[in-house]
Amino acid sequence: GKNIVWLLMDIILKSFGIALVTVVICLFINKQNKDVAILISIVACCGILLSAMQYLDNILLFVNDLKTIGNIDVSFLGILLKAVGIGLIAEITSLICTDAGNAALGKSVQILATCGILWLSIPLFTSLIDLLNKILGEV
After folding, report:
1. Model pTM?
2. How far apart, in whole angstroms, are the C-alpha atoms of residue 2 and residue 36?
3. For 55-66, how does the pLDDT look when each residue is reduced to its tens digit (9 = 90+)?
4. 2-51 pLDDT per residue, tens
5. Which of these, 14, 37, 70, 128, is most buried using a 10 Å CB contact count?
6. CA–CA gap between residue 90 and residue 110 (Å, rounded)
7. Quick check: 134 and 86 in contact, CB under 8 A?
8. 104 phi and psi angles, rounded to 5 deg
9. Is 39:22 a contact under the CB 8 Å cutoff?
10. How far is residue 83's CA from residue 66's CA, in Å, rounded to a whole number?
11. What is the rounded average pLDDT of the residues 84-104?
12. Between 56-70 and 74-99, two packed helices, what is the crossing angle to 10 degrees?
């Protein structure tokens, strides 16, 4: 109920605070040792990602409810969750690469993620085409 909402909001606000403090620390350290600043940034990203994992239980319960109520194929929901995960991880990885001065590598990570998401989506597109053929065949 309300306690969970406040707990999650507390986690979000603390994570934002950690991110801002990390940025300030990295700005100062970056002048002396860029490698250490990048490592600190990576550690902070991992910590924030771990705190985000606390949201997964409620998301998975919601997905399970959708499956039950809407009679939705579980594999489609799995594809959706995997695509979101790939996108988020790729975005963070790309930003870290760019911060480290390797924007080309960061862009390559984004391209790989896009290809991976498209590949994951093939069953969704196939199902959509089958549904359209079924609807058009009945007209």
Report:
1. 0.68
2. 40
3. 777 777 877 777
4. 677 777 788 888 888 988 999 899 888 988 998 898 899 889 988 888 88
5. 37
6. 6
7. no
8. -65, -40
9. no
10. 18
11. 90
12. 150
From 66, 88, 90, 69, select the one nearest 78 (Cα to Cα). 66
Residues in the chain: 139
Both structure tokens of 31: 């002048």
The amino acid sitting at 116 is G
Given CA atoms 21, 106, 29, 40 in this order, what sign does their dihedral have? positive
Residue 109 tokens, joined: 């990570």
CA distance 82 to 25: 33
Burial group, residue 20, by CB count within 10 angstroms (0-12, 13-18, 19+): exposed
pLDDT tens for 65-82 read: 777 776 677 777 788 888
**What count of Cα atoms within 13 Å lies in the side-chain half-sphere of residue 34?**
6
Q: Report which residue type is found at 104.
A: A
Q: Looking only at Cα atoms, what is the longest distance across the chain? A: 70
Is the CB of residue 116 less than 8 Å from the CB of residue 84? no
